[in-house]
Every structure is written in C-alpha cells, then in structure tokens.
Amino acid sequence: QGLNDIAYDGAGSLFLSDDLLNKIFVYNITYGTNTVMIKDGLKSPNGLLYDPDKSELIICSFEGSNAEIYGFNMNTSLLTVKASTALAFLDGLAFDADKNVYVSSWGDNAVFKFSYDFKQGPDTFSTGHDGPADLYFNTTNNTLVVPNMNSSKLEFFKIKPAGIAGNTLPGAIDVSYSSNSNDVIVSYELTTPSHVQLDIVD
User: Fold this and answer.
1) CA 75 to chain centre
2) Cα–Cα distance between 174 and 186 in angstroms, integer?
3) In angstroms, rounded to a whole number, what is the distance separating the alpha carbons of residues 135 and 133?
4) What CA–CA distance (Å, rounded) separates 56 from 71?
5) Contact (Cβ atoms closer than 8 angstroms) between residue 47 and residue 5
6) Are 148 and 133 in contact (CB under 8 A)?
7) What are the pLDDT tens digits along the chain (202 aa)?
8) What is the spatial distance between Cα 147 and Cα 112, in angstroms, rounded to a whole number?
9) Most CB within 10 Å of its CB: which of 38, 67, 85, 154?
C-alpha cells in the first residue's frame, strides 16, 4: 500500500518499507517471493540502511514528531530503538566512509549526523534543504548526495575523513579542505630531520 524505501543485503534479499502498513517486507530475488519480515513495533517506517558488519537493518521513522530510528538484527530477529529523537519526518539514511550515519529530516529541512553506535548525535550536518529525501554516499570521492524532492535539485557535500590510516612517519599529518573549492589539502610536517616517502591514495 505504501511502499517507500528499499535496501539490499548483497546476498539476494531486498528489504522494502511500507509506511502505511507499518511493516518491512523482504523480497527474495532468487525465488521471486516476498514475506513480511517486521510486522510489529514500527511507526511509519521510511528510510532503510543495511549494515553488513552487524547483519542489521537500520530504519528511520516518518513520524511527525519524536521520530525514532530502529535497528533490526537479522540473526536474532530482535527490533530495538537505536535513537529516540526530537526530529520529525525522517526520510533517508546513509553511511559515510567512517560508518557515521546520516539521516534526512523533512520536519527540519536538514540532514543530521549520528555516530555509528548512535551514542553521539543528532548533530546538524546541513540545513536549508527543500524536502530532503533518500541519501546517497559516494565512496569514490567522499561525497554525500542530498536530493531535494520539492525543488527537484541535488546537493553535494564533501565529507572530510576522520583521519589517515597507517601513519607511522615521524611527523604530523593534517587533512583539510580549501576554503574556495572542494580540493583536499594534505599537509605533513616533520618533527625531526628525516627522509620519508609519503604515498597518498584516494
């Protein structure tokens, strides 16, 4: 009746939210069958995000106030509330490269950020949208894409990585973005005179 969002587990199962029936369906691509996976405990389920590391489906609510974010464990079939918020009309979900979680809100015309464990957030990430819908994170260039349904416009936001892996050099590395472009600036300062090789891989 009210099919809304879709997510894929990479192993043949498509998950679909229905915000009118308050259910989550799973469709088996191989056999062409669909069943109700979650039938109770949800309020206006909208955006879906699958986490393969935890075998968990993250679900956000399109409730008009105090919208919740749920987690459904595929191994235990346990549904939990990952975050109770003061936000409204949550729509899309996405991970960034550091597994932070982003959620769009029609109630605030904004995008909010949570830590992976949902212990931090919601922190305001971007504002001034016009019906921010399902989110997409491009891992190639660390860009979060926000579609604005009411204005039919896409917005692109570069996300600074949390740090650089494998820094064993005798110095300090800093990553930043230039003030007038999306160029990434990587600076390295030696603490002692040394010969080093610095390889930067996107």
Assistant:
1) 22
2) 6
3) 6
4) 6
5) yes
6) yes
7) 789 999 999 999 999 999 999 999 999 999 999 999 999 999 999 999 999 999 999 999 999 999 999 999 999 999 999 999 999 999 999 999 999 999 999 999 999 999 999 999 999 999 999 999 999 999 988 999 999 999 999 999 998 766 555 555 555 555 554 444 455 556 666 666 666 666 666 5
8) 14
9) 67
